[in-house]
């Protein structure tokens, strides 16, 4: 059974049809990447999944339950978690406090401290644990937010451009982190532009174009699809 | 601000000084100086709402006024016998908290935040002031309590506690001073526990990034409402203490000037820290009082300048910055050993 399914999901902003009849299925245990040119509707689709936008029509089913009308925090409590494109951290607090706040939802103080220590090591944040999160480098902020997102032990981790603004080394490291999380059983859905990252991690890739699922397959199938190359190069298609 | 043995030693010294103060001061002066302590609860409440929770509220004086008038209406009508004086205090605070809960529900569950929260809370405060100011006519009575328009309500009894064999009426004197001081210590320590609890962590988290806090699975509206109601209850406590202390309350306690002053106390002290807020409020209030006596209307101008100075040069607050400076000096001294 699919972990996440959308059925004919639509979102209009006035006359603008941003998400058009998206029927999408995400298998558990996979890393699924969502790509597409700018303006394809990827971010809106993510916001619909998170409950930040309400769909104009269609349904979203997560883990066997219809979550279309649930609020964001209710979806999170059912096993979703997200890392935003712009790092969503608590800038005035230390990296360690950021993780503590994320973890306190689920753990008591004794287990919490052990888990904070584990995450600091896992995400290579040990040296900056006491630094104010707002002063960390961009890459470290991204990792810290990934740490906060996985603190919830989600069934589904949503990553919105997790490598935006990262160096090639940091991008590779992020890919390795995502693969390790997946190996621990976490299903991942990532919106990403960086094709090296997509190639590194994705089991399956969907291409979104003009709000519709345009193509779907493995990374090799997508790369070989001339229609996909055409939309990225700005050419018209049938 | 305020961890470790150095802080707690200073806390004990200040508390000891506060406890000993009536021993070497005139009872009349002690009674007058309770005035300063009365306001601190409202400031601490604002620190919780604004400094920790990130919601700038101009509503503190509205809750102050609601509780003050409620205390007056209750005690004028029913007296203070059989413990009703104390019960009136609790009911008045509960009315202010309930009012805040209803207002806060529409604000936070309606997702009103930022500057709009400030505008709505200020509007509510000023609407209350205008309403109370037009209650001069004899028809504006509740039972035997006359609201009395702009001249204010007076004649309510002082704070009265039930005691063995009768009641104790606490007029502005040493007894009331110790009671208010004791309340302040309890509220301060209670708030310290609260802001260091999970609840306090979430308040800070939603101040820093409400979207992230919600995406950690917290229903941030409930936490915002919770902080708002606790802060309002503290403003209500200030309202009751002030009203029973002076046996008097007027609509001007909810005027735009009155609504702005707590913002200045808290901002100048350091809104993100209850210790800085407490010290700042007492210092700024004392300075304001002295200026009012010697400089009349210039006191308000100075308060305005103080706020501008703080916002431009020490946005974390003067006391908070002084605390940070002191902390780094101590660290350097310890590191140099």
Main beta-sheet strand count, sense and barrel state of chain B:
2 strands, antiparallel
Instruction: Give a count of the beta strands of chain B, DSSP E runs of length 2 or more.
Output: 6
Strand content of chain A: 25-35%
> On the 0-100 scale, what is the average pLDDT of chain B?
93
Derived from helix and strand composition plus strand pairing, the structural class of chain B reads mainly alpha
Oligomer state of the chains in this structure: heterodimer
Radius of gyration of chain B: 20 Å
3D architecture notes:
The complex is a heterodimer of chains A (238) and B (337). Chain A has a domain at 89-153. Chain A is 37% helix and 25% strand. Chain A is built from nine helices and ten strands. Chain A starts with a strand and ends in a 6-residue tail after the last helix. Chain B has one domain. Chain B is built from 13 helices and six strands. The mean pLDDT of chain B is 93. Chain B has 337 residues and is mostly helical. In chain B, the strands form three sheets. Chain B has a two-stranded antiparallel ribbon. Chain B has helices spanning 4-20, 27-52, 60-78, 84-109, 115-133, 174-195, 198-208, 210-214, 220-246, 256-269, 274-295, 298-313, 318-336; strands at 141-142, 145-146, 153-154, 159-163, 166-170, 248-249. Helices cover 72% and strands 5% of the residues of chain B. In chain B, helix 7 crosses helix 9 and helix 10 (256-269) packs across helix 12. In chain B, a hairpin with a 2-residue loop joins strand 4 (159-163) and strand 5. Chain A binds chain B through residues 50, 71-73, 76-77, 81-82, 84, 88-93, 97, 100-102, 104-105, 145, 148-149, 151-152, and chain B through 198, 201-202, 204-205, 208-209, 211-220.
